[in-house]
Amino acid sequence: MPLPVGAKAPDFTLSSTNGRDFSLYKDMKNKPCVLYFYPKDFSIGCTNEACSFRDTFEVFKELNITIIGISRDSIESHEKFKKTLGLPFDLLSDNAGKVCELYDTQLPFVPSFTKRTTYLLDKDQKILAMYQNIFSSKKHIKTMVETVTAK
Questions:
Q1: Full-prediction pTM beyond 0.85?
Q2: Domain count, the chain
Q3: Over the stretch 85-111, which tens digit does the pLDDT of each residue have?
Q4: Which of 18, 38, 52, 148 lies most in the core, judged by the most C-beta atoms within 10 Å?
Q5: Which of 33, 46, 51, 100 is catalytic?
Q6: CATH number at residue 96
Q7: Alpha-carbon gap, residue 108 to 126, rounded angstroms
Q8: Distance between CA atoms of 40 and 26, rounded to whole angstroms?
Q9: Mean pLDDT computed over 116-131
Q10: Per the domain annotation, does 1 fall within a domain?
């Protein structure tokens, strides 16, 4: 079961495509963000999801909401994925799956598989919205856009 709306998101530190380590509480202090967990760079659903976030990036940017993608892929894979798709946001590498575990995005019997899960966090890292659906990549973006534009 994903983390509930209203809960404080767990802190973590991961390698980022920007060349630095990303720490949620430090880097997003007083800033809202979207954390989207996805299974695999270059898979059809994940490519569609990343492109949808890219194509709606301005909606989030106007509201000063940072988008961050997280999967278990390597930084090298993320850099290629980001460059190939022209993604204007950073991707984080959770090789060991520790953050996926913290955010309950792993399948119970296949812990190496990341469930497609999206969290919208407020400036204090509290969960404002969550959407989890392994198969519907575009619905994640639609749900987050509807949530941020309704505020």
A1: yes
A2: 1
A3: 999 999 999 999 999 999 999 877 776
A4: 38
A5: 46
A6: 3.40.30.10
A7: 25
A8: 27
A9: 94
A10: no
